[in-house]
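Final report, Chapter 2: Outcomes

The project's central promise was a pipeline that accepts a single protein chain and returns its three-dimensional structure in a standardized token representation, suitable for archiving and comparison. That pipeline is now operational. To close this chapter, we reproduce one record exactly as it appears in the project archive, with the input sequence first and the structure output second.
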Amino acid sequence: MPTRSALRCLSSAAAAPGLALAAVPILASILTCSAGPAAAGETSGKKAEAKPPVTLDEKGITVRLDDGSTFRIGGRLQGDFGTGHVQQRGFGTVFEEPAAIRRAWIETYYSLKDFEFAFQYDFNERRVPVSDAIVAYKGFQDVIITQGNFKEPFSLDQLISDNVSQFTERSQADAFAPARNFGSAIGTHGANWTAVTGVFGGNINTGLQNNGIASTTRLTYTPWLSENKNDVLHLGLAGSYRTLGDDDSSLSLSSRSEAFLFARPLVNTRTIRDATAIGRVGVEAAWQQGPFRLQGEYILTDIERRDGRPPLLFQGGYIQASVVLNDKGRPYRVVPTYGSEYGVFTGVTVEERQRVSRGGTGLFELGVRYSAIDLESREVRGGVEHDFTAGANWYPEPNIRFVFDYIRSHAEPSAESLNFGRRTVDADLFIGRAQLTW
């Protein structure tokens, strides 16, 4: 049966009228439970007891039913704050507001024998509020078949969850990643390799028939992977080809400085009206030894055009390094629960002795990244941007994180600077994030 402290937390969370108003008591309840000894999972030398049918901890509310199925309700809340300066007169507003909610998700998961169901909804996103909405079948050995709205298997940076991403935002090259769309995928794996491929239409939020049809495949190989999954050499190759169809009249690619609060893109192809297909090829590599990790990607994007016009070629990439100061590195996950997120790094592990609620100092992580994107090809002058990011993460508890990033952006020329004689644009940004997951 649930503990009294867990019941008090549940009743406290349930007392809030309405979903929006429920956020504050729910978060407070989870924090209280995760900090209390009942949720700590401390051992006293006694034989471990069976898990209760209902638990409330940093992973949310988990219900275990008699038929062996499991239902979990979780979520994530990310709030960003910061300031910035653009060294360009007349550029205008850098940040529309100094603080804003980045994500406010509610997530539900249901496991029943060989089936997995997942649904994620972002109350802070008006255009595409539904993230994952899937059903997956795992009845075949070492095979996962997924149907629904989820990430296409492309780009290590994109496939790593934003809950555990190194910095507040992904790199400039993420502008080329297809991200989430509705489709079907099948994935398999061995001891040191993975393969996943799928066919995808449009996004479930904006129309399944929009944006043509894509085929996307990703392969990974780990020539070196330690037993504890902390020491690894990761290699990956991905490809995607999407036919846009005659009803797709326009395509555009853009990227802003690597900060959510930044108001405008610095590079932008604007509308490419004669595009008929878009192809992507990405190569990725990562090496982790203990607390040190080095990771990089390069993505080449080809846009085919009608009437025999020559294609457009755009490119981008990044390289980053990080170190966990007082613990081992991020575990490497070969197989996901569902979907296409094979061969990725997960989050750091905050041990009991390190938790602030247990008298520790938490976990600290430092990282640096250089990323670039080139959106200039033939007559399309979308601009070239280079970003340098230095950041620090503090994890006081397993489900709490604070991120502090400094970003230096240099764009030449910039889509926004065209009104200023194509002069360069330089920006200095300071971004912070407070994150709670449950």
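Archive annotation: Confidence is low (pLDDT under 50) at residues 1-48.
This record, like all others produced under the grant, will remain available to the consortium after the project formally closes.
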